[in-house]
Amino acid sequence: MTFITANWNPLGEAFYRKSELYEMCWNLRDGLRDCLVAAAPYGGPIALLREPVRRSPSSRPQLEIYSASGVSIASFPWKSGPVVHLGWTVSDELLCIQEDGSVLIYDLFGSFKRHFSMGQEVVQSQVLEAKVFHSPYGTGVAIVTGSSRFIMATNIDDLKLRRLPEVPGLQGKPSCWVVLNQDRQTKVLLSTGSELYILDNTSCTAVSLPGLAPQGGSIVHMSVSFSYKYLAVLTDSGHLWTGPSHLQDKMSEVDTKKLTPPKQMVWCRRPKSQQPSVVLMWDRLLMVVGVCQDTIQFPTEDQCVLVGEMDGVRIISSTNQELLQEVPLVCQEIFKIASMAPGALLLEAHREYEKSSQKADEYLREIKEQSMLGEAVSQCIEAAGHEYDPNTQKSLMRAASFGKCFLTDFSPGQFVTTCRELRVLNSVRESSVGLPLTHTQFKQMTLQVLIDRLVYRQFYPLAIEMCRYLKIPDYQGVSRVLKHWASCKVQQKDLSDEAIARAMCAKVGDSPGVSYSDIAAKAYECGRTELAIKLLDFEARSGEQVPLLLKMKRSQLALSKAVESGDTDLVYTVVTYLKNEMNRGDFFMTLRNQPVALSLYRQFCKLQEQETLKDLYNQDDDHKELANYYVTASYREKRLESRLSLLQSAVDEYNKAKNEFSAKATEEEMRLLRFQRKLDDEKGAGLLELSLQATMEALLALGLYKQAEQLYRDFRVPDKRYWWLKLKSLAEKEEWDELEKFSKSKKSPIGYLAFVEVCMKSNNKYEAKKYVSKVTPEQRVKAHLAISDLDGAADAAIERKNDSEIATVLSRCSAADRLLIERLNRASTAKK
């Protein structure tokens, strides 16, 4: 316990400690002197630009990017203009702000992404100072120009430059300035000597520091806290004023006894801080100034860089990196000398238990008597999260595990979660990974963002192992990592397309949420078309394959894939694309190789593009379908001459196709049309467009029997059909004399029962009786029954000695027909 508190330093009622994070892996010959340095928060990367003011073309500055542990990530000579400031975005992209106002953006691996300018005005006046800040809107940039104007962009991803109002009396750059975020507004606080101004979008307002001593002097340095809620101001007399950033109150004012301005000044506070402080750094001194008037001083042997974090300050030197932070209250209660807190007693009880000492029972009894065992377990678990040393973590978690054995209703959730989180944090804190996150930072960052950072840095095996260990759903975890890995893999130019495709298949397989089409699209963007095609073969969804194949100008392959999918909409999409991209001849030739696509396109043309359909049949020499097209097209023509012309074309095509039946049928249609027009002209019959049968019916209805007879002969209408048509027509018109003449004209091909039935249908029993005698013996019973002649039916049935006919007659007899029934029964018995 004494060892743990050995590096604790009291500050008011709290303690501060410095924990070593890394012995830096880099080898900086000249240390951090003559360097522009930028380190991203949350254990982010470090960028160094050596001798940024060197302008000799023969000796360019070197821009180097390292992990937080000093492992080199990228290094390249700086070939652009002089750099004023370096900064990191929230997504770990490096911003390089030049004198001419250009901002160049590089990724973590030194690849150029894009650039933007802070305005034309800056090109002339140059940038004197710049700051990169993080706001609710994203990453922002603020600059001071040579004309003493402030220009700001609150979100570089949605660039909108704001030129802030002019500051009265300002010549050159201010003595110091900071960017504030208040009420979702970004402002600039600056000082010109002893004067203090706030700049917003529309105004420049003079402000003062509440409670600052009159002898304070000119302001030489300012610093805003990580959350932008607190402000620290240092004067040339060495007075450090701290208070809320809205400048409505004062927290403290401390005389540092230092008259020279520090090189850096950074807030050091944690959430629920007991004793927030400000860290000031001079050449060989690091001073921690608390709001309680106390200070802590640390000598430094090497030039350092301070990086503000949400719960402390990282101190980076050329040899090592440390974390300065306020000791969390729970850790103070457990490890403080002579502490009687429940967590401290439980930790001591576990140590005695490991020694097999009976004192363990005494400590446990003391905790139980106070009913504080549950709180003791919770304290040990919470403290373990705040400790950086794995051995201390284990000691606290073992004590918590020991304590919860004596509890019956303690939920294990907090214990299990903390164990998992500590294992994750310890793995990313390794020097090879270089993410020195505290538990507080991890909670603020969230697990999802941590995985994203590992993926971005290409620590794929660790990210996948972490996802599996934490049982994250595949689509949020492993699949997302594999997708990013695959996108990077296709960019490796030293591997063949075949090797990459095999590696993809082996690693990705059928992982849910990973789209091979997305990976193939990335390969295509990198100029690897053949690899993209190989990867698309692994894509199970044709709807994802086809659009990319079309984009790659692999139209025929896209068409084949669409046909294989069986999705007609997809086929239509490809066909439409091909039609717009190809000349007509090539388009038709392509479709000929895909019968399914050709058939679907024909269906489409039948509904939408009739002329195209004709061209398609011509291209294929499909005479039969072309003839069918002419026939169909003829019905859309209103002029008879045009219709006949199209029908003649159809006859010619049918003859070419050696389809004699269709050719003859079409010729007869033409004859019928001419006949109909002739009659329309002569009689005004309105026959055009009627079928042959309908035409004959109309003629008979109009009494044009000769013309009907002519059609009957010319078109070789079957006798039975013609007799039926004329029979029905005469009966409907009740031309009974004409009907009788017709029946005698020649032997009826439809028999005479039809005459009986048609007459009875018209309720003319008298006429029906005329034809009963002409009915054949086989149908005579039916004829007599049709006219309700039971006696005649009985005579016919008995004459034919047909049991079924006798039975039929009997079924029609009523009780009044007793004599007829007896007669029929005798005939039936005599037959037997």
UniProtKB/TrEMBL annotation:
> Which InterPro entries has this protein been placed in?
VPS16, Vps16_C, Vps16_C_sf, Vps16_N, WD40_repeat_dom_sf
Where does the UniProt annotation locate this protein? Answer: Late endosome membrane; Lysosome membrane
Please give the superkingdom of this protein's source: Eukaryota
The membrane topology of this protein is: Peripheral membrane protein
Q: Name one GO biological process term.
A: intracellular protein transport
Q: Where is the Vps16 C-terminal domain?
A: 514-818
Q: Which Gene3D superfamilies match?
A: Vps16, C-terminal region
Look up keyword Nucleotide-binding and say if it applies.
no
Q: Which residues form the Vps16 N-terminal domain?
A: 5-416
Just give the chief location class. membrane
Keywords, A to Z, come to: Endosome, Lysosome, Membrane, Protein transport, Transport
One Pfam family assigned to this protein is Vps16_N
Q: Which GO terms describe its molecular function?
A: actin binding
Q: Which SUPFAM superfamilies match?
A: WD40 repeat-like
Entry GO terms, CC: CORVET complex; HOPS complex; late endosome membrane; lysosomal membrane
Q: Does the keyword DNA damage apply?
A: no
What is annotated about its quaternary structure and interactions? Core component of at least two putative endosomal tethering complexes, the homotypic fusion and vacuole protein sorting (HOPS) complex and the class C core vacuole/endosome tethering (CORVET) complex. Their common core is composed of the class C Vps proteins VPS11, VPS16, VPS18 and VPS33A, which in HOPS further associates with VPS39 and VPS41 and in CORVET with VPS8 and TGFBRAP1. Interacts with RAB5C. Interacts with STX17, MON1B. Associates with adapter protein complex 3 (AP-3) and clathrin:AP-3 complexes.
Family according to the record: Belongs to the VPS16 family.
Q: What job does this protein perform?
A: Plays a role in vesicle-mediated protein trafficking to lysosomal compartments including the endocytic membrane transport and autophagic pathways. Believed to act as a core component of the putative HOPS and CORVET endosomal tethering complexes.
Name of the protein this chain belongs to:
Vacuolar protein sorting-associated protein 16 homolog
Organism field: Gasterosteus aculeatus aculeatus
